[in-house]
Amino acid sequence: GQDLCEYDLDRDMAYLLRLWKVIVKRLGKTNGPGSIYEESDMIIRTIRDIFSEDIDTLIVDQVDSFNRAKEFLQLVMPKYVNRIQLYEGKEPLFYKYNLENEINRIHRRKVPLKGGGSIVIDSTEALVAIDVNSGNFRTDDSAEENAFQLNLSAAKEIARQLRLRDLGGVIVNDFIDMRKDSHRRKVERVLKESLRRDRARTKILRTSPFGLIEMTRQRIRPSLKRSVYDDCPCCQGRAVVKTAESMAIEVVRMMVMAAQSPKASRITVRVQDKVAAYLNNKKRREIMHLEEACRVTVQILGSEALYPEHIEIDCRDADGNEIALRFMDEPTSGK
Fold first, then answer.
1. What is the pLDDT, as a whole number, of residue 318?
2. Considering the entire predicted model, what is its pTM?
3. Rounded-to-integer distance, Cα 114 and Cα 111, Å
4. Cα 27 vs. chain centroid, distance in angstroms?
């Protein structure tokens, strides 16, 4: 209950008292061993943790879920039970209210701000970095006033995105530089006020000389991104892959090592199309020199189906027997 207002504590107390009365009634009606209480499902937990008087309507598209949600609202907040509605349309609920697009926007790195400007959110192992960009945002001839107004808008959107994405840990917000100390304090206050609705505990430091506001947010569960996405098998979550040139150089080094193997006669390389094209066009001289010097035949095969860092090298002797390449077991690219 730390940092919660009296209203929130009173609401929680009222819920627990009503719940206890329901449990006592169930105990009185139960003759033998049986369940009197169990952890709520996702719909009930969502209503319990998120629903408030600020929400005008709660729409449910399944009869069973609607009945459970209505019963729970009657228990927790009886005066708001008329705000829940059963959706009976044929069109999927998410498409009717354009929720699919809104969900997709949550995962975008760049979030536009009203009136211009944007924030860019990057998550790393150590922290979450949020950068405020001015773009074409203009409200006044004064650069200071423009920066101040943009930062106010960004502070509200940052608080909203932290809740939507469920980002936790250390968060560094890089706002547009402001010279006036009063403007810095105002941005800090707006950020704190915008985070009051957040059930996760937050701690916000004062603006640093570099215009950074550092903060921490309680990590309750894995972020929304982690719940929806896995790391890319091609780049292992780096969001970048090696260029065709760098991959070709790596492949040439591996072919040289394979050619040094005793009895090596034929080397077949399977890589992505662009890497194969680079090897066949830009590295043809080195490959021919390797074939002559080590008396081996080299074949380069490319495929669009392979990811950019894929390397597969097959080495055979004159009789077609496979020669094991120990260096291929060592961790490198996407072998």
1. 93
2. 0.66
3. 10
4. 44
